[in-house]
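Let's practice the habit of predicting before peeking. Look at the sequence and jot down your guess about where helices and strands might fall. Then scroll down.
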Amino acid sequence: MRYLIAIVCMLSLSGCAVNATGISRDTGETLSIHYQSNAITNKISAAAGDESFRGKIVSTGGGTISDEYGNRVKISGNTYRAVFVGDRGRTMRCELCGGLASGVGTCITSDGEEFDVMW
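Done guessing? Here is the structure:
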């Protein structure tokens, strides 16, 4: 019984990690995003150029999006929204869709720089 309790505790504390890479649509600058989660906490951080970002991420559910004409498309995987604050004064928000194995999204900084993101 002690071993079963120890295994359950270890599994609940083990987590997942996702590393995503983005490319600026304007400058070609790269963005790296690292997400780490376990049963106790989740952390997300990012870096673009010489600026580091810390943020929060929430699941916004699964998926349907609409275009400007009202056409609806079902998305496979979960959708997420993240907000970051940079150490050089910028903020950044991201819309992400996917799972642990793969996903895509976009991020935009407070000065308008847009990144296409994938993992």
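How did you do? Strands lie at 16-24, 30-37, 42-48, 51-66, 72-86, 91-98, 103-109, 114-118.
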